[in-house]
Design goal:
13 strands
């Protein structure tokens, strides 16, 4: 096999596309004098291919070409095969996080094309792929909520890569509009955020004692998700919608200690069952502790009960918890990389979640300092431990960014077939040397592909480390939300 050397990585001819995408970004960044980690994040996110939406740039392609090298066989298929653009993914969540990063970076003009695309998709003028329309909204326009992932082009159902209309994903889109509106004073972008929240409230709300919101009601996803409730809480707080905020908080608090798995009582359970609308019974068929629920809850400040924060941090760093380390076998002689698993049943660090975890550790240090204020020795040791762990994740992400000029979803090798053979291997026994990426433990995996969400989250972490104010994507923006009126419309 022919081989090429690219930034120190030896790749086979089948992976040559990686050099065009990753190494040339490095050369381009160097030529323009980009030296900082944030510049590398900017470079990846701005050069990553975009969706073709009626001749204009749309959402950002979720994954780049596979990162092959070292002893790992180049057996990952292209994330977007040439001539088969219908297989490419453009996830709405990833683009929403990227838009928030651009706003927090002070580059709102780079977020605007993403938001313009969302606006076109949210307020369709032609056929609606998934058929559900919402009227009588704050804007007096007709809106449809977004599917989880879109294709590079197409119309109607042909434009959908993953058809689930997910409450959390749409809340993230609303959060992107809210952050942009606050940063720029654009009232019409605030109006879009209010429309999204109202459509979600109307279609997903549960009004029993547990409260909260259904995950995917348009496709019989009647379960209630803690992660979705956290997203809804953050969006509602940004927009001053206290009723939605209170419902989300009540649900998340109600999920504390509901995980029946031994050793998991000091965590938030992920979801209820979904046998019927607003099913109140805790889900028992998957008792994995989802990292995003624990981490994002801290960032969103949904429930900052110090005893609970202390308990979930103890769990996170326990042997059966979330903390883990990986070896990047493309660089076998380097130090291990430290991060967190996607869930307690998963295997391998997932770097989007790891970046958020590091951000949350900074918030946790303040909570723990107050919690242990009467125990000086314990306070000092715990706060130091959290800061040490935060720095270890930060260092690992910095290594990955400088190594690959992006952040992959995982550094573990192997393809989909390997993942099927090693699924939940951390729970059941020994994992293979190339186990098929980082297993979430929840039914899918992340592989060695450059990943938009992981890179954007890392960018937010680097902004936090640089001392930039108010970069937490779940926090209420610093500037007051602009006042809107229905008369202004949503054509911003």
């Amino acid at each position: 096999m022919l081989a090429h050397t690219c930034s120190g990585i030896v790749v086979g001819s089948g992976c040559w596309a990686m050099c065009l995408s990753i190494c040339c970004i490095s050369l381009f960044a160097t030529a323009l004098g980009f030296g900082s980690d944030l510049d590398l994040v900017d470079s990846f996110l701005t050069l990553q291919p975009r969706q073709d939406l009626e001749g204009t740039d749309g959402l950002i392609r979720t994954f780049g070409p596979p990162l092959c090298g070292g002893e790992d066989p180049c057996d990952l298929p292209p994330s977007c095969p040439a001539g088969k653009e219908e297989l490419c993914r453009y996830d709405v969540y990833d683009s929403a996080v990227a838009a928030i990063y651009f706003v927090k970076r002070g580059r709102a003009e780079l977020a605007l094309p993403i938001l313009d695309t969302f606006t076109k998709l949210l307020y369709p003028t032609g056929p609606v792929p998934l058929g559900r329309l919402y009227t009588d909204l704050p804007s007096n326009r007709t809106l449809t909520l977004l599917a989880a992932s879109l294709r590079s082009h197409g119309h109607g159902s042909e434009s959908i890569a993953e058809q689930h209309v997910d409450t959390g994903n749409n809340a993230w889109v609303g959060m992107a509009f809210a952050h942009y509106a606050s940063a720029t004073g654009s009232a019409c972008h605030a109006l879009v955020a209010h429309d999204i929240l109202e459509a979600l409230r109307r279609s997903t709300s549960c009004n029993d004692a547990l409260r909260g919101f259904m995950g995917r009601p348009q496709s019989s996803g009647f379960y209630r998700s803690s992660e979705h409730a956290i997203d809804m809480y953050a969006l509602a707080r940004m927009l001053g919608e206290t009723e939605v905020q209170q419902s989300a908080r009540a649900f998340v608090k109600g999920m504390w200690g509901q995980n029946s798995n031994p050793g998991c009582s000091q965590t938030y359970h992920s979801s209820t069952s979904g046998a019927k609308r607003c099913d109140p019974s805790p889900r028992l068929d998957n008792t994995a502790v989802a990292a995003d629920v624990q981490i994002w809850g801290i960032l969103a400040q949904v429930d900052l009960d110090p005893a609970r924060v202390h308990g979930l941090l103890e769990f996170s760093f326990s042997p059966d918890g979330l903390w883990t380390q990986d070896e990047d076998l493309a660089y076998p002689n380097e130090d291990p990389l430290l991060g967190v698993r996607f869930s307690s049943f998963g295997n391998g660090a997932q770097w989007e979640i790891s970046a958020g975890f590091a951000m949350a550790l900074k918030e946790s240090g303040t909570v723990m300092s107050q919690f242990l204020s009467n125990q000086t020795a314990s306070q000092s040791a715990v706060v130091k431990m959290l800061e040490d762990r935060r720095q270890q994740v930060l260092s690992s992400l910095r290594i990955l960014l400088r190594r690959y000029r992006c952040i992959p979803g995982s550094v573990l090798g192997g393809n989909f077939s390997a993942w099927k053979q090693n699924r939940q291997c951390a729970k059941h026994g020994t994992c293979g040397r190339h186990p098929g990426g980082s297993d979430t433990g929840l039914g899918w995996a992340y592989f060695r592909y450059p990943h938009v969400a992981s890179t954007a989250w890392a960018g937010l972490l680097f902004l936090q480390e640089a001392g930039a104010p108010n970069v937490n994507p779940f926090a209420t923006p610093a500037n007051q939300m602009p006042i809107y009126s229905a008369a202004m419309g949503t054509r911003c």
